[in-house]
Amino acid sequence: MGKKKRTFADKVAKGTGPRGEVCPKCQAVIRNIKVVRAQRSEQNDSWRFVEAVEKVCKCNEKEFLG
Ligand SMILES: [Zn+2]
User: Fold this and answer.
1) pLDDT for 55
2) Rounded mean pLDDT of the chain?
3) Ligand 1: distance of its center to the CA of 42 in Å?
4) Is 35 in a helix, a strand, or coil?
């Protein structure tokens, strides 16, 4: 067969990204996810949406992923 063998290293690289930072508390790999927050402007009393990148691991994933 001409199929390329999938190695364990390939899987790890895909799953964790280039950094593979690990949380010291829960030992889970920290993921950077983009979240959109609603933020109220005091000046003109309107809402704006602000994008932020949050680091998510098992300690706080429930807050972001439900
Ligand atoms: Zn953690």
Assistant:
1) 92
2) 82
3) 34
4) strand
Q: What residue ranges do the domains of the chain occupy?
A: 15-65
How far away, in angstroms, is 62 Cα from ligand 1 center? Answer: 11
Ligand 1 centroid–CA 51 distance in Å is 22
13-32 confidence digits (pLDDT tens): 555 445 678 999 999 999 99
Q: How far does the centroid of ligand 1 lie from the alpha carbon of residue 19, in Å?
A: 16
Alpha helices in 1-66 (DSSP H): 8-16, 61-65
**Sequence-distant contacts of 28-36: CB under 8 A, at least 24 apart:** 28/57, 28/58, 28/59, 29/57, 30/55, 30/56, 30/57, 31/55, 31/56, 31/57, 32/56, 33/64, 35/64
